[in-house]
Amino acid sequence: MITQEMNDRLTRVGPGTSMGNLLRRYWHPVGATGEFDKEPVQPVRLLGEDLVLFRNERGQFGLIGPRCAHRAISLAYGIPQPNGLRCAYHGWTYDTDGHVVDMPFEPACLPLKIPSYPVQELGGLIFAYLGPEPAPLLPRYDLFVREDLDRSMEITPLPTSWLNCMDNSLDPIHFEHLHGVFGNYVHKKLGRPAAMNPARHLKIDFDVFEYGIVKRRLVEGDPEDCDDWTIGHPILFPNILSVGDVKRPNYQIRVPTDDTHTLHIRYQGVLREPGKEPRSDVPVRRMQVFDEQGNILEPAVNIPEQDMLAWVAQGPISDRTIEHLVTSDRGVALYHNLLLQEIEKVERGEDPMAVVRDKAKNYPMIELPRERVGYQQFWKVGGITREPARPAGRG
Amino acid sequence: MITQEMNDRLTRVGPGTSMGNLLRRYWHPVGATGEFDKEPVQPVRLLGEDLVLFRNERGQFGLIGPRCAHRAISLAYGIPQPNGLRCAYHGWTYDTDGHVVDMPFEPACLPLKIPSYPVQELGGLIFAYLGPEPAPLLPRYDLFVREDLDRSMEITPLPTSWLNCMDNSLDPIHFEHLHGVFGNYVHKKLGRPAAMNPARHLKIDFDVFEYGIVKRRLVEGDPEDCDDWTIGHPILFPNILSVGDVKRPNYQIRVPTDDTHTLHIRYQGVLREPGKEPRSDVPVRRMQVFDEQGNILEPAVNIPEQDMLAWVAQGPISDRTIEHLVTSDRGVALYHNLLLQEIEKVERGEDPMAVVRDKAKNYPMIELPRERVGYQQFWKVGGITREPARPAGRG
Amino acid sequence: MITQEMNDRLTRVGPGTSMGNLLRRYWHPVGATGEFDKEPVQPVRLLGEDLVLFRNERGQFGLIGPRCAHRAISLAYGIPQPNGLRCAYHGWTYDTDGHVVDMPFEPACLPLKIPSYPVQELGGLIFAYLGPEPAPLLPRYDLFVREDLDRSMEITPLPTSWLNCMDNSLDPIHFEHLHGVFGNYVHKKLGRPAAMNPARHLKIDFDVFEYGIVKRRLVEGDPEDCDDWTIGHPILFPNILSVGDVKRPNYQIRVPTDDTHTLHIRYQGVLREPGKEPRSDVPVRRMQVFDEQGNILEPAVNIPEQDMLAWVAQGPISDRTIEHLVTSDRGVALYHNLLLQEIEKVERGEDPMAVVRDKAKNYPMIELPRERVGYQQFWKVGGITREPARPAGRG
Asked: Are B73 and A313 in contact (CB under 8 A)?
């Protein structure tokens, strides 16, 4: 139970807020490369700011303010040019830095500029940096870079706070209850057999490391030397869950759209079978799981949908003035304290944790701890080990 | 024409308002028993309060606050247990009084409690009481209890104030104009013959009795000893119209969802034919007649839809600062004065009218005056007595 | 770039605003005669005021306040009578001046009146005047009156300010860029060939005349004596564009619904072929091009849709505090200054421009300058002169 003031400090992400300032020290994905052949100009919203992301005809990406400096029309209708984005209304053209480079009919091109932010591509995603210069390096986290994986992603807009999502990742216990008991209840209501064994948690633990927090669990039936307990999996500070096993590792990136909306990117790697051709693209699937009022459109039959259900069912921003954190919430408390501590670092002018400026650490990649196998007990249903229910259409 | 302040006093139903305090002295239906096999957990909203109504696996109903005390997730996703409702997220379980009775993983179950209100079942409805203890008796009004009737109900959410609905019931004259003249106009626009004779009202009268107000009318063509004039039909204080004749009596219950929304329950009894088996259930039909903006979805061809149209067409709360009550509104004025008088009783610490605490009066039932036949002149169209147009799907 | 205060002064149209006072000195279309057979009672919104437009059974139009003086129900459900509009609820009847003329059941008809405004029919439109008496003449602009034309109209509600629309009409340059370059880009994305030659503007000019502003352009390829440059076409003050050529002249009337909504009426004349029977009606097509959030429903393939796209893409009210007017915006600046000047005239108690009180000028009609042919260069695509893409369903 915290004050409303503290809840605001932890959740508000707009320009000038404490958390907004912290989150602006990191690169955030705002688009998927694979979608720009079909639509090279896309309106985006990040940290409460409306922007336009475009790819010019030379293949360079730009992220600029949403309105033309001339008559304030939305640049989301702009036309890609070799040298930038041309406004639909009168042809004023913006380069990737937001400078007007063409002003048809006018005797001279006035030296105008609209806001712009740096972007970089990695692993099929376009990342943006909205913070103060000099920008840090874009972290080369392993799944974005590894050559032995094929990649794909699912992108889901959620009408809920990014922190509702993140709290869930610091909370191992929910797996037993939300995915085990509740998931089985959803299947039962659909006339289907139980999908999961809700293995009882015996203990949980957390370690802070260079790039975030590793969480670990031991459940009934597993030995003390199982990967879930000895290795665990990391939450990359500030807003990425790294999960899955060596064969199917994935990231869940919770991009803060604004205070009450999150763009959820489930970034999936699949270990390529030996001798198989690597796939050259990173396919993208856009999902719609909730309406704007937070009603789920279909029953939540798999783990990602159940997680999203729990986040959205906490409301646009969870009311932490009425909650009661208990011993199972140690990870949540640790994470909140880390957020507050890193906010203070930023306020002192320091880099917060997991900001990467050392090329030696970033190349060829940042390798992360990962279970070889995980969650084994949960899939032993009625004595038989089942396949996890996966979202439809996932590889 | 009244002041805005007085209109607020008459219409606002939230916690702490004058009318909210009065309405909290009565039991209000919040669910239909027949729907709990399919969905045993239902979010409800009553008098401006969001709540969750559930049936545990022992068949007991509970009405509790909407959010888990742990992480504030909606309990509308809860799972019924023998001993209560289990939160989807981490399994905290609430009994029907709102006490946490299970807190998995925690070393001990903390003595937490969320809000809860008493509920009772009667006649296929679940009633809730949101007022101060001791709760009065749930009135056993005849249609809920009689053994010679089969029952059914239609439930319609309306984007309008409960008082818009109630005013209509204290106003006999509208029948001639809204159902007669306007109803015929609706049919004419659809290319259909007139459905009703708009019999002219000669006089109207009202009597206050123990449970509310009886209204009476005499229309052209009817003798002075007709039931419409000598018996009439009652408005049960504060928010139920009892209407229909001995063969097809019904209640129209206007449950105040909040200031600007009403849950309309049309509770229909049909006199069972001699020797016929009683039906064991009370079937429920959920209707959608308006969108949230108050647009009617289909032409208003029958009496209930025409009434609803008039209420909704007054806006979310009728602007009584611009109205002109006239002699035909005697019943409306009487009803408003009664509401204000009963508000004052509550403020003095007294029970308001129609609060039942005497078991002798309540058992076996509270019998209400009812016309043997009614509205006869209205169905004489072109010299022939027609059947009233009924809502589709009504028995 | 202007201040927010100035932008408000130029755009706000509600009762008591500066611009609202100016716009109330003109007649505005609020309905189309051809639609009243099907629906003789229509809710309308004009200059921020909700009203009801009806045709009584004698064929007379009335424009009255939206709510019955009795119980404040919407009169949009009223029933036309020979002597006025009868309220659906209790039959109170209003004449075209808003007087109650019937009050069934009451011992006497009380002398009540609701707001009303004068209306007049012309050319298949019903015009309303919301300003101070004495009302000026309804201007008989030529397309409403000429006997050598057949008429039709398209009516499109737009979620944007009337001034966004009007600015566009004072801005010749956009034609080359919005309809030429952007239009071709829209067609290209649909796999279609370019629809237009984006002829380069060489010069533009503007002249104030008795009824507004004439705008003129010279584009590359056209001689100095072309109609586009020597004649041009007028913007009728304050809110009508007159465009097209002698064969297919049209008006685009931007009726200010409220600050952020406009009813766009594209009023089309087609020169009748010699010997052909005149058509007796003025057909009406209701269009839906955008949703309420301003998203366009289909790609903008023709000129009217592209214009609408530009207006709506400026937002509900264009943010003129961030714009940069340049030399190509001379017409826009001229128009804004004219608006401000005419506001001041009204504030001094004078008639603003284009208010017509002289019958001699108004009869038989007010003839407007019009190009014999226009826009020729734009339709020379690949050396071939094409037909302009027209909205589907236009004659």
From this structure: yes
Widest Cα–Cα separation across chain B? 80
Contact B106 A324 (CB under 8 A): no
Token pair listed for B315: 């806006």
Kindly report, residue by residue over C13-24, the tens digit of the pLDDT: 999 999 999 999
Tens of pLDDT, residue by residue over A101-130, are 999 999 999 999 999 999 999 999 999 999
Query: Amino acid identity of A219?
Result: V
Token pair 């001339």 in the structure block, residue: A70
Whether cis (ω within 30° of 0) applies to the bond prior to B139 is no
Mutate to test the interface with B, among A163, A305, A322 (most CBs of B within 10 A): A322
The ipTM (two decimal places) reads 0.95
Instruction: Tokens 């808003």: give the residue.
Output: C98
Contacts of residue C363, defined as CB under 8 A and 6 or more positions apart, other chains included, come to C140
Nearest to C97 by CA among C137, C62, C133: C62
**Cα atoms in the 13 Å half-sphere on the side-chain side of B323:** 24
CB contact under 8 A, A324 and B107: no
Nearest to A229 by CA among A337, A327, A382, A372: A372
Q: Residue A4, by phi and psi: left (phi above 0), alpha (psi -120 to 50) or beta?
A: alpha
Dist. CA A81–CA C119, nearest whole Å: 51
Q: What is the pLDDT of residue B298?
A: 97
Q: Give B318's contacts in chain C (Cβ within 8 Å).
A: 71-73
- Reported as a single tens digit per residue, the pLDDT across B54-71 is 999 999 999 999 999 999
d(CA A16, CA B87): 37
- The CA–CA distances, whole Å, from A77 to A90, A94, B314, C182 equal 12, 13, 42, 9
Angstrom distance (rounded) from CA A30 to CA B320:
51
CB atoms within 10 A of CB C213: 20
Report the C-alpha gap between B168 and B176 in whole angstroms. 13
Please list, in sequence order, all residues whose beta carbon lies within 8 angstroms of the beta carbon of residue B392, skipping any fewer than 6 positions away.
none
Residue of B nearest to A308 (CA): B89
Between CA C52 and CA C65 the distance in angstroms is 6
Rg (CA), chain C: 22
| Look-up of token digits 């533009």 | C204
Residue A388 confidence (pLDDT): 64
Q: Given an 8 Å threshold on Cβ–Cβ distance, is A105 in contact with C315?
A: no
Which one-letter DSSP state was computed for residue B76?
G
Say yes or no to pLDDT of B394 above 70: no
Nearest to C308 by CA among C107, C299, C393: C299
The Cα–Cα gap between B342 and B337 comes to 9
Instruction: Give me the residue label for tokens 């020979």.
Output: C82
Q: Retrieve residue C225's tokens.
A: 């004596």
Name the residue among B177, B309, B313 with its Cβ closest to that of C104: B177
Mean pLDDT over the full length of chain C: 95
Place of tokens 């009703």: B196
**Residues on chain B touching C79 (C-beta within 8 angstroms):** 181-182, 185
Q: Are the CB atoms for A51 and A117 separated by under 8 Å?
A: yes
DSSP H/E element including A311: helix A303-312
